[in-house]
Amino acid sequence: MKWGIRLVLAAAANGVLLMIAAVLFDKFRLSFTGWLIGTVLFTVFTMLLRGVMASAARKYASSATFLGGLVLTWVGLVLTDIFTARKNFDLEGAGTWLFTTLIVWVGTIIYDQVDDRLIDAVHGRAKGGAGGAAST
């Protein structure tokens, strides 16, 4: 159940971050369909790639964590760009790629700081709502 909550919250955060980047950069074209598809693909790609990054982080410690996060974000965006129709999701130009990667990466770091608390709150509310009423 926690994995499902984590997936939904990550998708929501990624959707917001992609929208922010698209608003900030003229060379990032994002339609509503592209936003939906891009959010789903980016979330799935980055969640799958996190396992690889976590393994590298254990091996190479903190330098891999910092660099790995940036690479993970960039690879997630590249894969999303490749697998989404250009008319719906398209990043162009080195500056757009660089700053979009940085914005999404920083947003992900911020999200990761509150991720566990949000999941515990959602999970606790779902459990506590039914159990809390019975125990009072």
From TrEMBL:
<keyword id="KW-0472">Membrane</keyword>
<feature type="transmembrane region" description="Helical">
    <location>
        <begin position="7"/>
        <end position="25"/>
    </location>
</feature>
<protein>
    <recommendedName>
        <fullName>4 TMS phage holin, superfamily IV</fullName>
    </recommendedName>
</protein>
<feature type="transmembrane region" description="Helical">
    <location>
        <begin position="94"/>
        <end position="111"/>
    </location>
</feature>
<feature type="transmembrane region" description="Helical">
    <location>
        <begin position="64"/>
        <end position="82"/>
    </location>
</feature>
<feature type="transmembrane region" description="Helical">
    <location>
        <begin position="31"/>
        <end position="52"/>
    </location>
</feature>
<keyword id="KW-1133">Transmembrane helix</keyword>
<keyword id="KW-0812">Transmembrane</keyword>
